[in-house]
Amino acid sequence: MPQYAAGIDSGTQGTKALIVDAASGRVVGRGKAPHAMIAGLGPGSSEQDPAVWAAAMEKALAAALSESRIDPGKVAAIGVSGQQHGFVPLDAKGRVIRPAKLWNDTSTIAETEEIVAALGGRVRAIARLGIAPAVGFTASKILWLKRHEPGRFARLATVLLPHNYLNHWLTGRPHMEYGDASGTGLMDVRKRRWNEAAVAAIDPELAGKLPALRHPAEPAGEMKKDIAARFGFGRVLVAAGGGDNMMGAIGSGNVAPGLCSLSLGTSGTVYSYFERPFVDPEGEIAAFCDSTGGWLPLLCTMNVTNTTEIVKSLFGLDNARLERLAQRAPAGAGGLLFLPFVDGERVPVLPFASAVLFGLDRGTFDAGHIVRAVMEGTVFNLGYGFARMRDLGLKPAEIRATGGGARSRLWLQIAADVLGTPVVTLKESEAAAYGAALQSVWNWRLAAGEKIAISDIAAKWVVRGRLAAEPDPARAALYADLQGRFNDLWKRLVPDFQARRRA
User: Fold this and answer.
1) CA atoms within 13 A on the CB side of 57
2) Predicted local distance difference test score (pLDDT) of residue 503
3) Do the domains 4-240 and 252-429+468-503 sit in the same CATH topology, yes or no?
């Protein structure tokens, strides 16, 4: 009988659900539901009630099932992708103690610095963990709870991440796999185990509140009967799931060496599968584990489509007119450079930086050159980190692009030219939800006793889209020169960025 899988992507703004044919990978139903943020919080705070995620998952899944028109009893497995780095604290009865602090919560700077100091400083912390502790990671949020809400911390029995919480809601069991756990700041990513020094830096009893780490081939459990009954399901396996980047890698087929995923959204990410640990001693490239059993070094920049949204508003453009305007200017925008640090920057590490247009003259001071420079600047920013990944061993054969920017032929061409690698798009744009469904089929087939690699499933399921771009050798020297000037410019401006911050 035909069998189906469900893929859930629980993000910051909402939840998306897919119903997928478990034999062919064909998407037969889609659903979505928005999330509400908690308003009125202090500076840097970003929180959500985990109950909102569960309600949105139910709504999105019900919509996807309705659109699919399948028999719900034929759904065999479900996988969950969730926003990384969040902190969901549970008490001894499995109840949520307080709202979850999210990945973009920056209220824990002091706690991050305290943890780094306890580990012997940034260099020593990277040596111990294989990754640089960041303010957005889960570890500092746990210490924040201890420092600011000791009564609630005293009730803490289990630490979960957002996708773990949804798995717990579905199964009643705490479960944590390598991929999402590697973004907590508590894990030795090379050995894939909790780091005792990092855990002890927060609290000596914290170790007993962390779930045992599991290989992502091991499912989280079976869906509770009462929840299954709401949808007309029978027995449904709940897969290990993972963080949104880890599921996005699976959903874009990035489960074998040489493939890269590029997300051109509000922020930008580039990540690639590795069979062995990939550690950046400088900590610029995040040395995550993936959610298949390998590793997933990841570059994250904070500024991509947020910059073009500002330019669109400034000149009264839609996406099509933005691209047509940028195409009027030559490659390289006549030497006009844009440092896209509108929201500061993560890589390079410039949280205090701001955006800069450099090189305006009578030949470049027009809308076309400015729009082209803005688009190119976002890719030069990615180019800095991509070169770092190459220096550390990345050998890219193909980049698979997702996100809003991947719908732009010009942006794809700029990416191919600057990064020196072919760029393709994908037929299924919801890579995280699709990856969650794919991983759930893998878990389900393994549980049935079948010997199969997730790369075998991905090779059949993940299909390229229509848009693609090959690097143009004629533009290689131009963009290489501009990349060097881009890197030199932001380095020279660091003292000015810091002075502006102090002013």
Assistant:
1) 27
2) 67
3) yes
Say what the pLDDT of residue 310 is: 95
Mean pLDDT, rounded, of the chain: 96
Cβ 301 vs Cβ 330: under 8 Å: no
Q: 């005293």: which residue's tokens?
A: 154
CB distance 126 to 283 below 8 Å? yes
- 14 backbone dihedrals φ, ψ, rounded to 5°: 180, 180
Catalytic residue among 244, 280, 290, 417: 244
| Count of positions (residues) in the chain | 503
Question: Is 180 an annotated catalytic residue?
Answer: no
CATH, domain range 4-240: 3.30.420.40
**Any idea where the domains of the chain sit in the sequence?**
4-240, 252-429+468-503
Torsion of CA 432, 433, 439, 440, to 10 degrees: 160
Instruction: Answer for the pair 90, 96: CB distance below 8 angstroms, yes or no.
Output: yes
Across the strands, what pairs with 149? none
Place 482 in a pLDDT band, splitting at 50, 70 and 90.
very high
CATH (residue range 252-429+468-503): 3.30.420.40
Alpha helices in 303-408, H assignment, sequence order: 305-315, 319-328, 367-391
Task: List, for residues 276-318, the tens digit of each pLDDT value.
Answer: 999 999 999 999 999 999 999 999 998 999 999 999 999 999 9
Is this model's pTM higher than 0.85 or not?
yes
pLDDT in tens, 150-178: 999 999 999 999 999 999 999 999 999 99
Amino acid at 177: E
